[in-house]
Amino acid sequence: MFRSPFRCLVLDFFLQGDLPRSEIYSVWHGAFGKALAQVSPDLFDKLFGVAENLARLYVLTPPLRGYPRFRVTLMGDACDAGREITETVKVMGLNGLGKERCRFTIDWAQYGLHQPLSYYHGVNDEIIRVPEPRCITTSFIDQDRGYRNRLRFSTVTPLILKEGNGLMVTPPTFPVLVRRFLGRISQVAHASGAELPYADERQRQWLSLAGSVGLVNQRGCIVSFSRLSKRTGHRMVFNGWDGTLEYAGPLSCFYGLFKLGEKLQLGGRTAFGFGAFQTLWGNIPDTSHETVEDECLIGVAEGGD
Fold first, then answer.
1. Which of these, 8, 60, 196, 202, is most buried using a 10 Å CB contact count?
2. pLDDT in tens, 105-137
3. Tens of pLDDT along 31-56?
């Protein structure tokens, strides 16, 4: 059976106006869904009307810590909807979101995967060019950035990983991260009818080498979230790891895998914005002698659909 290439497109919208002060992910997700249904009911059904056992073909990252960027990452056939998504974000700003009905406009936007390939100017309401979605091939996965023996993995939004029947409450080891990345990519490929962007031999290499990479330092905590669904009336509570992890070992071959993971995000609730992270590669100084806080306060974020 023919399978299409693994495709990905990142759209970064830089907003201006009255943005919500609190970082309630479900408010942004709900506003995005409402606006998308107005702009394109068919696209709304494609992105939101998926079976529970299939990965969603989009990821959202709302504005965080005062940085006014709203990111939408599209995968598979959804990559062709760059113009519709731009119109959706415009409608979100007109509709307003949150209890305060905060309104905003798009100042400018950029589309691409690595370097921006085109721009949208909010003042002129003009898209210069929406690029072709990037096909993720073995050349992307195998990209060489030189020797790497240190990795700093920093969450941008909390990381929600399951362990057995519950949620993981300890920082993930490196083999766990690698397995979860491979699982995430496989789920997206299955949902979009795409081929995997790496060979079986490469996957075996990752799984074999992952055990040689150790967690040498950690700073962070488990954060508890509460979410009220207006649709069902049920409140769900779940935990996520938020902080920085440092790994040491033979890391060079994992660079492309983690760079793809940065676009797809990892763990549960990625459609709402969870599981976003950044990586820093190189010879990071060993800070394992410093005191690590094992206990910390638990923050609570509440919101609805």
1. 8
2. 988 888 876 554 555 565 555 554 555 666 777
3. 999 999 999 999 999 999 887 778 99
Domains of the chain and CATH, by start: 6-135 (3.30.70.1890), 137-304 (3.30.70.1900)
Structure tokens at 160: 């929600």
In this prediction the pTM is 0.81
Q: How far apart are CA 244 and CA 154, in angstroms?
A: 4
**Cα–Cα dist 189/300, whole Å:** 34
**Which of 93, 254, 108 is CA-nearest to residue 182?**
254
Contact 292, 216 (CB under 8 A): no
Of the candidates 268, 32, 70, the one whose C-alpha atom is nearest the C-alpha of residue 161 is 268
